[in-house]
Structures are given as C-alpha cells and as structure tokens.
Specification:
The protein has 205 residues and is an alpha+beta fold. The chain folds into two domains: 2-99, no CATH class; 137-204, Nucleic acid-binding proteins (OB fold (Dihydrolipoamide Acetyltransferase, E2P), Beta Barrel), CATH 2.40.50.140. It has four helices and seven strands. It has helices spanning 2-15, 39-48, 79-94, 101-137; strands at residues 21-23, 53-55, 142-150, 154-159, 164-169, 182-191, 196-204. The strands form two sheets. The protein has a five-stranded antiparallel β-sheet with strand order 5-4-3-6-7. Strands 1-2 form a two-stranded antiparallel ribbon. Strand 6 and strand 7 (196-204) form a beta hairpin. The longest helix is centred in the middle third of the chain and has 37 residues, at 101-137. It is elongated, with a radius of gyration of 21 Å. The model has no long low-confidence stretch (mean pLDDT 89).
Length: 205
C-alpha cells in the first residue's frame, strides 16, 4: 500500500497533476532514523512529529521517510483516495485532471476537517474492541506493561502485546519510575464507547 501510494505521488508530481498529498514536512534529528520497537522510543519520536496535513502540492512525509505521498488505494474507505483516483483517471483519459489545482485548494479545508474526523473514528474502532476485552477480564488481573512516557502529573504505559496505551496519575507509581521500565498494572473503569481505561494500581515487575 505505502509503495503504491508513494509511486503514485512521485508520478503525479512529475506530471504536475493536482492530487491530495499527505504531507509532514518537518526536519527530524538524524538519530530519529530507523525502525523503532520499544514503546518509550516510539512515544518520544511521535511527540516530535506534527500530524500529517493534506496538500495539493507534493511535499515530503517525514514519518514515512518519503519525498511525496498521496493515497489512492482505498477509495471505498477514504474520500481522498476516491478523489485522487478521479484525478488520475481523468488525466489518463483526457490529459487533464477533473479538478484544477485552484478548485482542489478551495475544497481542501472541508475535506481536511472531514478526513480528520473520519480518521479519529477509524483509530477508535480497534481500541473499542480491545477495551471491551479488558473490561471482560475484570479489574483484579495484573498485566505486564512498559513505561512509555512520564512527567510530574501523568505516566503513560504501554501494553505492547495489545498495542494499547493507558495514562495514569503519577502518584500511583513508584518514585524511581523511568521510560522503558517494566511494571505490572491493574486496569479498570473501562468504558469502550468513550475509549477510556484507568490504571487502578501499579507495581514493579
């Protein structure tokens, strides 16, 4: 998917074709390069990345490490992909895009707002089922976790096997806490519809 979308973006840029490009045009430190698997490293890098934006001109996508990125591979799920496919098909058939760049720019604010809202729903969908599972397990079970981030007020823990992040109040944790530390937690007050789950108790692993 990423390879096909990246190839499309490069082709569209060379053709001067107005498309909806996903952009994250920020400079990242050299030490951020690589593939990260530890929750504390992923959390640190994500905090440095602003959200991707929609643009009508090709721009780099720092998170993916690409010079340009435009999605078109899922038109039944994303309106931006459907619009991009329409632009491509029109260009291939008639030599001109269906929408000129000025027309696309006029649509960008409303498309961006709706795309962001749809993306939020999409992110919450798998979390709903995961939280439903945790609620079914009850609040007496201890779970293995890793500290992903911490500050004076809150601690964010990761359950890597479930790919779930949960935030708890700092006072619930040991003073010696640090990112990457392995701990165990009890979880409760789970509300799958609101995407909420709380740390009830924490201890060293």
């Amino acid at each position: 998917m990423i390879l096909s979308n990246a190839s499309l973006a490069l082709w569209g840029g060379k053709q001067g074709l107005p498309l909806l490009y996903r952009a994250q045009d920020v400079a990242l430190p050299r030490e951020f390069a690589g593939i990260w698997t530890d929750p504390q490293d992923i959390s640190r890098i994500i905090r440095a990345l602003p959200p991707a934006s929609l643009e009508s001109q090709p721009k780099r996508h720092a998170g993916l490490g690409l010079h340009a990125y435009a999605t078109f591979s899922s038109p039944i799920r994303r309106y931006t992909d459907l619009l991009n496919q329409g632009q491509i098909l029109s260009c291939l058939r008639s030599g001109a895009p269906r929408l000129a760049r000025e027309e696309l720019n006029m649509l960008l604010p409303s498309i961006s707002a709706r795309s962001d809202a749809a993306a939020q729903v999409q992110r919450q969908r798998p979390r709903y089922w995961k939280l439903l599972f945790f609620r079914q397990q009850g609040d007496k079970k201890w779970w293995d976790a890793i500290v992903a981030d911490e500050n004076e007020a809150f601690v964010t823990i990761a359950l890597p096997w479930a790919q779930v992040l949960v935030r708890g109040r700092r006072r619930q944790f040991d003073e010696k806490l640090f990112p990457g530390m392995r701990i165990q937690v009890r979880l409760g007050k789970v509300n799958p519809l609101l995407g909420e789950m709380q740390v009830l108790e924490a201890r060293e692993a």
